[in-house]
Amino acid sequence: MLVWGGFAEDTGPSKTGGRYDPETDIWTPVSTTNAPPARYLHTAVWTGGAMIVWGGLDDDAIASTTGGRYNPVANSWTSVSTLNAPEARGHTAVWTGTQMIVWGGTASPVGGRYNPQTDTWTPTSETDAPSNRTGHSAVWTGSRMVVWGGFGDIPDTGAIYDPVADSWTPTGTADEPLFRRGHTAVWTGSEMLVWGGYAQGLGYLGSGGRFNPVTNTWSALSSVNAPVPRASHTAVWTGSLMIVWGGNDLQNYLNTGGRYNPASNSWTPTSTADALPIRNSHTSIWTGTKMIVWGGLDGTAPLNTGGWFDPVTAQWTPLSALNAPAARYRHTAVWTGREMIVWGGRSFSLTVFDTGGRYDPLADSWTATSMLDAPEARADHTALWTGREMIVWGGFVLPFAYPSSGARYDPVRDRWTPTSLANAPAGRTNHSAV
Cβ distance 90 to 107 under 8 Å? Predict the structure, then answer.
């Protein structure tokens, strides 16, 4: 697990990081020799052999036009050339397999393609490029980058970028959905499905569109039986269906949703029988056959209820509350392949938790996680599943301190093993962990 950069509570932007090996429980500091200057809100892509860091903000909140390549085997940094490099903050970065493409943001409408083999930047063409924006989405289809949505002066359409031809093709406007924010978008393998969101002057939307980058055409999603207009909802792709659920409209949190089948261009409402109460700040996981939702806020109080949704039968089944963890939000949840493990989080009273639970969907039963050697109570931490253990690290503890501690949880043995503190990065929250 590689941790680098970010914003530390006491020192501001950071240029430090660490490599954590769960097999040996050892942290190794990431070398600072030739490392990029301290920063946060940068982007990082993994090439398969190196991590490339680019852009972001420095201590004076000035956009950086520098970056670096980190080789974890040699524990060494190599500077990234700045010749023809774009200034970048609020940008997106995608890895194509051979190049990193940076585009957009608040600093500059110009993007760039970085080739780590030659350490060279090639500016992306501005001809037919979309208007500059931030908060947009950028997806890699396997041969093209598709940019759509976001905020800016006139972000009225999207575009497809071909890095081989260095050319932009505006996304078609015939049948294009209303431009929006707060929407969801999923990639089916051949199309991008956009739905919901908020349009300035028009309010919340219950419409959407399907975009085919090969034909550069939009087609409208059916509105028959579609969910009511909303934004800030969630959407998952099951392999054949898009499931939309939750979110909010102007006045209400919602506990309704729908299943969209692109093959038939049809919606099937998610059942409201036994549907979960309204909520946000919950966790949801996909088991391979079902979506499990648990915890969160209903607008007035934290929840310790949940349910699983079967997209085949369109039915919700409540999770057992017997032995379930205490109500909470801003917790984490991981799927092990047979269980969901929930841990940490906070309550309305600012209490943070060092407790959790393992939910077995086959038995519909909860088993409390051991508290022996468990990490210090916290929220807004990260948790990931290695295939054998859950690693918890970082976050905040009361009274709003940022620990550099963590632990590995083995659900088979119900045992916590603290992660080493030696050479661990400075404590932080809102970081990333892979």
Answer: yes
Q: Please name the residues in contact with 62: beta carbons below 8 A apart, sequence gap of 6 or more.
A: none
Taking only the tens place, the pLDDT of each residue in 232-284 is 787 878 889 898 877 888 778 787 888 899 999 999 988 776 677 777 778 88
Contact between residue 158 and residue 146 where contact means Cβ atoms under 8 Å apart? yes
CA angle 277, 278, 283 (to 5 degrees): 90
Q: Could you tell me if 195 and 242 are in contact, meaning their C-beta atoms sit under 8 angstroms apart?
A: yes
Radius of gyration of the chain (CA): 23
**For residues 141, 219, 247 and 367, what is the CA-based torsion angle, rounded to 10 degrees?**
-50
CA nearest to 86, candidates 100, 98, 71: 100
Exposure string for 132-145, b = 16+ CB within 10 A, e = fewer = bbbbbbbbbeeebb
Question: Distance of alpha carbon 242 from its chain centroid, rounded?
Answer: 18
d(CA 88, CA 106): 8
SS3 assignment, position 230: strand
Q: Indicate the pairing of strand 76-79 with strand 67-71.
A: antiparallel
From first CA to last CA, the distance across the chain in angstroms is 6
Query: Do 30 and 18 touch, CB atoms closer than 8 A?
Result: yes
Q: Helices (H), strands (E): how many in the chain?
A: 0, 39
pLDDT one-digit tens code per residue, 342-397: 999 999 777 899 999 999 999 999 999 999 999 999 999 999 999 999 999 999 99
Residue that has been written with the tokens 């028959």 in this structure: 224
Q: Provide φ and ψ at 170, rounded to 5°.
A: -55, 140
Tokens read off for 341:
């493990």
Q: Tell me how far apart the alpha carbons of residues 34 and 71 are, in angstroms, rounded to a whole number.
A: 12
Classify residue 344 by burial, with Cβ atoms within 10 Å: 0-12, 13-18, 19+: buried
pTM, rounded to two decimals: 0.47
Question: Residue 332: beta bridge partners?
Answer: 343
Element (H, E) at 342: strand 340-343
CA distance 100 to 97: 8
Please state, in angstroms and rounded to a whole number, the distance separating the CA atoms of residues 420 and 349: 31
